[in-house]
């Protein structure tokens, strides 16, 4: 089964880097968006199984976008990211909201991101 992920970040160089890292981790269907509006369109169109969302986006709050994506009917796994380690901590679900973990951009290449995006299943 093909695993899909949506990368949301306003920096095209970071989107390219993240997409390459995710490809090396076994994701074979990677979509990119530069802002909240295009991410919501891509999510509805492609129905990704996972999303990597930057906290700072030009047209909205990445944390709110992460919550919105995580609550979609197909329940994609969502991970927040930022170059600022102190920008966010994992969002703890409450009142039925899903939890959303955080990983610093400088830590993307380690195995933690793959585990957060895939959970217990995913590409081999």
What this model shows, in words?
- With 124 residues, the protein is an alpha/beta fold.
- 33% of the residues lie in helices and 23% in strands.
- It contains four helices and seven strands.
- The strands form two sheets. It has a five-stranded parallel β-sheet, with helices on both faces. A two-stranded antiparallel ribbon has the order 4-5.
- Helix 1 (12-24) links the parallel strand 1 and strand 2.
- The longest helix is centred in the first third of the chain and has 13 residues, at 12-24.
Note the run of SSEs as H and E. EHEHEEEHEEH
Which structural class do the helices and strands define?
A: alpha/beta
**From the alpha-carbon coordinates, what is the Rg to the nearest angstrom?**
13 Å
Classify the helix fraction into a percent range: 25-40%
User: What ranges have pLDDT less than 50 throughout 5 or more consecutive residues?
Assistant: none
Mean pLDDT: 86
Strand content: 15-25%
How many helical stretches?
4
Strand order of the largest sheet: 2-1-3-6-7
Major sheet characteristics: 5 strands, parallel
Number of strands: 7
- Cα-to-Cα separation, first versus last residue: 10 Å
Give the overall silhouette. globular
């Amino acid at each position: 089964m093909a695993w899909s992920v949506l990368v949301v970040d306003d920096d095209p160089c970071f989107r390219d880097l993240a997409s390459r890292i995710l490809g090396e981790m076994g994701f074979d269907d990677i979509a990119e968006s530069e802002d909240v509006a295009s991410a919501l369109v891509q999510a509805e169109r492609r129905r990704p199984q996972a999303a990597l969302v930057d906290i700072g986006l030009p047209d909205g709050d990445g944390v709110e976008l992460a919550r919105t994506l995580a609550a979609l009917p197909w329940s994609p796994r969502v991970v927040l990211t930022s170059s600022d380690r102190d920008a966010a901590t994992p969002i703890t679900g409450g009142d039925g909201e899903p939890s959303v973990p955080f990983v610093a951009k400088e830590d993307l290449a380690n195995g933690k991101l793959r585990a957060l995006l895939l959970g217990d299943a995913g590409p081999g």
